[in-house]
Design a protein that fits this description.
Blueprint: E1 8-11, H1 24-39, E2 57-62, H2 77-84, E3 94-99, E4 107-112, H3 118-123, H4 128-145, H5 160-167, H6 174-196, H7 199-211, H8 223-231, H9 238-251, H10 257-266, H11 273-279, H12 323-333, E5 379-386, H13 391-404, E6 406-412, H14 418-426, H15 432-435, H16 492-496, H17 505-526
Parallel strand pairs: 1-2, 2-5, 5-6
Antiparallel strand pairs: 3-4
């Protein structure tokens, strides 16, 4: 909605669901479609869309659509770095390394990997082989531009270690020094792990099982023998052995439970890992089957003809293509079936699904329309993967965006690493109270100290029986008020003796005497009659009290009683 886009909504619907969570995408799609329609502007208020831009498409999938992708070894720079290196991802992505190694300024430091790093952005989706070639080529160009930098001849290609040693002496190129030092160190560490853990042999059999074809794109043979030989190899880590077993079971579409125990014994893994393998069935994988009985082989989600596949020996360890990439290709080509990816509402008309080609006007030279806004007619595709997405799927979105001239947005809850994915699968059978899920945690409360009020100061006791002085603002201040110790005290005793009884001579005399005393006290205390300011009078606003003697009226005292 922030992009002004209200796309069509399609979702993944398995053909033969075997797990309870198969309805997840259906519920999510209906909920999202309802919210989009509620916020979609009416036809009379809708703003005109950009010219020639087709309506976008939102594809809602989940992790069960492709369980191979988070288990395979991916050999792009970004995927290998997150899979093999001890990167810290919270709160920032950092790599701990030594800088200025071999010098007096050597120190250990957490180097941050950020989007502003041009070396990282340019190489993260490249194959590891191409990344190393690019790093070494860029550094050789620097040596050619700075011949006085080193005495080492530049006719031969230096190794990664030699380049790292030369970079350590670059005080005048601090920013370039840190960037290349970081990525050359990471590339060297990745290649060391690649060789020591025999990832080349592991990746070869992984690609065969994930694609169902060997390197010659033929039906593979002796797959189990290769798997068992790697499970017995001490150079293969325990995590890679568990990944191999899981991939083999899904390749075979399930095996008998006894064979699972035999594979775990070959891998020297604890029997508790059986539960982790069985939990893959909660995501839709077929992990076990009875000893006897006919089984229909599963139909691939996106079948491909081996005859149309191009062999590339240089990238034979990266033959697998994630389902997200094949889904986007079929969508852009108009061949994505509605039986597996239906719409939430009425399917669009055929003309709405037509791909709008770039017009000649939008393809005009940049210099001819430097001050004009370029026409953007690329269709937007939104891919949401519930349960986490892999770095291979992120790379696929970049490739489809460039190949098919679309703007592809990958949306997910988190990025998956193989080790983290296995831990999540293992937790599927753990009691909920032990997982400490954010939804189960108590709601945060406002700290109690924010409501604490400062303790008021203690009241001061009067000294010598006198009352404490009045606090400012606690009473009404009077002008010309005299100090409490010196003036005339109020006539409380005389006022207490006053009576309002009528009809008795004594009471009238008493009241007259008392009022005369009050008037005398008032005159003595004030020193005369006060003259109020103008505007305070009640008759015509004269502002003054005048003492006049009316001979026609009887003289009255202070309270208006006749004398």
């Amino acid at each position: 909605m922030s992009l002004g886009e209200y796309p069509f909504v399609r979702y993944y619907k398995p053909r033969e669901p075997l797990h309870e969570a198969s309805v997840l995408c259906t519920h999510l799609a209906r909920f999202v479609d309802k919210e989009l329609r509620a916020h979609e502007p009416r036809d009379d208020t809708r703003q005109a869309p950009p010219p020639l831009r087709p309506k976008g498409v939102l594809l809602i999938t989940d992790r069960s659509m492709d369980l191979m992708a988070p288990l395979l070894h991916e050999f792009t720079y970004q995927a290998m770095a997150h899979d093999l290196l001890p990167l810290k991802e919270i709160p920032k992505v950092t790599f701990h390394m030594k800088i200025n190694e071999g010098t007096g300024a050597e120190e250990e430091k957490d180097m941050e990997i950020v989007e502003s790093d041009k070396v990282w952005v340019e190489n993260r989706h490249r194959h590891m082989k191409d990344t190393i070639d690019k790093l070494m080529s860029d550094f050789n160009k620097f040596l050619a531009q700075n011949p006085n930098f080193t005495d080492q001849p530049t006719d031969g290609a230096p190794s990664l270690n030699a380049i790292r040693d030369m970079i350590a002496g670059l005080p005048q190129f601090q920013q370039m020094k840190e960037a290349y030092s970081l990525h050359l160190t990471m590339a060297q560490e990745v290649m060391n792990i690649f060789q020591s853990n025999k990832l080349s042999d592991i990746a070869s059999i992984e690609q065969t099982m994930a694609t169902g074809l060997d390197e010659d794109y033929k039906k593979p043979k002796n797959v189990l023998d290769q798997v068992v030989r790697l499970l017995d190899d001490p150079a293969v880590t325990k995590e890679d052995r568990l990944r191999l077993i899981a991939i083999y079971i899904m390749y075979r579409d399930g095996i008998i439970p006894e064979d699972i125990q035999r594979l775990l014994a070959h891998a020297a893994l604890p029997p508790a890992d059986t539960e982790c393998l069985e939990n893959l069935g909660l995501l839709g994988a077929q992990m076990t089957h009875p000893l006897k009985g006919f089984r229909q082989p599963p139909q691939p989600l996106f079948p491909r003809d081996p005859k149309n596949l191009v062999q590339d020996e240089e990238y034979s360890l990266s033959r697998f293509e994630p389902a997200v990439k094949l889904m986007l290709e079929n969508l852009c080509n108009g061949t994505l079936g509605q039986d597996v990816f239906p719409y939430t509402g009425t399917p669009p008309r055929p003309e709405e699904e037509m791909v709008v080609q770039t017009s000649l006007r939008s393809a005009a030279p940049r210099w001819a329309s430097a001050n004009r806004r370029q026409v953007d007619n690329r269709q937007r595709l939104f891919v949401f993967v519930a349960g986490g997405a892999t770095y291979s799927e992120a790379k696929a979105c970049y490739e489809i965006s460039e190949k098919m001239s679309r703007d592809v947005f990958l949306i997910t809850s988190h990025m998956l690493k193989p080790g983290f994915f296995i831990r999540q699968v293992r937790d599927l059978s753990t009691e909920r109270r032990k997982l400490n899920l954010p939804a189960d945690r108590p709601k945060p409360r406002v700290p109690a100290h924010l409501f604490d009020r400062p303790t008021p100061p203690p009241m001061q006791r009067p000294v010598g029986g006198q009352a404490p002085p009045p606090q400012p603002g606690m009473g009404i201040s009077r002008p010309n008020a005299r100090p409490s110790g010196g003036g005339v005290r109020p006539p409380t005793k005389a006022l207490g003796a006053m009576t309002l009884s009528s009809g008795r001579e004594g009471s009238s005399a008493t009241l007259s005497t008392t009022t005369s005393q009050v008037s005398q006290i008032s005159l003595q205390s004030s020193g005369g009659y006060d003259e109020p300011s103008s505007g305070g009078g009640s008759e015509g606003g004269s502002g003054r009290h005048r003492l006049t003697k009316d001979k026609d009226k009887k003289k009255r005292n202070l309270f208006g009683i006749k004398k």
